[in-house]
Specification:
182 residues; alpha/beta; six-stranded mixed β-sheet; 3 helices; binds inosinic acid; binds magnesium ion
């Protein structure tokens, strides 16, 4: 038992399942960019755990950078506005950029980020997301690498939070509704 177990309704992907999926994605990325250099841009803070594992399964020269964006939230619902809290530290002009995100939900964060990076004239821009909730999409966005497609549940763990907690839960689980609904 761990501290968080009583708040989790169901584990949908265990630590072991995530590990093997992440290794497979890393292998695919290594093949797709063979002979190239890659700038991995992690979206803070949700992608930290995924990014840490993913980069170690990528067999290429990798430069790591991060951005912090926030969509304004009312509880578990994003309002649609995005703000830059921390910009990249390196130039991405003429670089292959791989955006690493925890989850593609409405698509608002990723659409905003793609536009922000396109302006800086990257050589290529691709997206790798651990989770994808296709049924929630309001803005169309091309996802190049997807860990798992999931149903419309609010999930936590492996980097994903609810009110900044659960990021250190090693599995991906559905949060019990009573944790966020009055
Ligand atoms: P989007 O801009 O609506 O696609 O929202 C993406 C962001 O919302 C993600 O980067 C997460 O931070 C957050 N988010 C969306 N769904 C979930 C969830 O089920 N659990 C935790 N965070 C989520
Ligand atoms: Mg996020």
């Amino acid at each position: 038992m761990t501290t968080y177990d009583s708040s989790i309704k169901e584990i949908i992907y265990s630590e072991e399942e995530i590990k093997s999926r992440v290794a497979a994605i890393g292998k695919q990325i290594s093949e797709d960019y063979k002979g190239e250099e890659l700038v991995v841009v992690g979206v803070l803070r949700g992608s930290i755990v995924f990014m840490a594992d993913l980069i170690r399964s990528i067999d290429l020269p990798v430069i790591l950078d991060t951005v912090a964006l926030s969509s304004y939230y009312n509880g578990t619902e994003s309002t649609g506005k995005v703000k830059i809290n921390k910009d990249l530290e390196s130039s991405i002009t003429d670089k292959n950029v791989l955006i690493v995100e925890d989850i593609a939900d409405r698509g608002i964060t990723l659409t905003f980020l793609i536009e922000m990076l396109q302006v800086r004239k990257a050589k290529s821009i691709k997206i790798c997301t651990l989770l994808n909730k296709p049924s929630r999409r309001t803005m169309e966005v091309k996802l190049d690498y997807i860990g798992f497609d999931i149903e419309d549940h609010f999930v936590v763990g492996y980097g994903l939070d609810f009110a900044q907690k659960y990021r250190n839960y090693p599995h991906i689980g559905i949060l019990k509704e009573e944790m966020y609904k009055e």
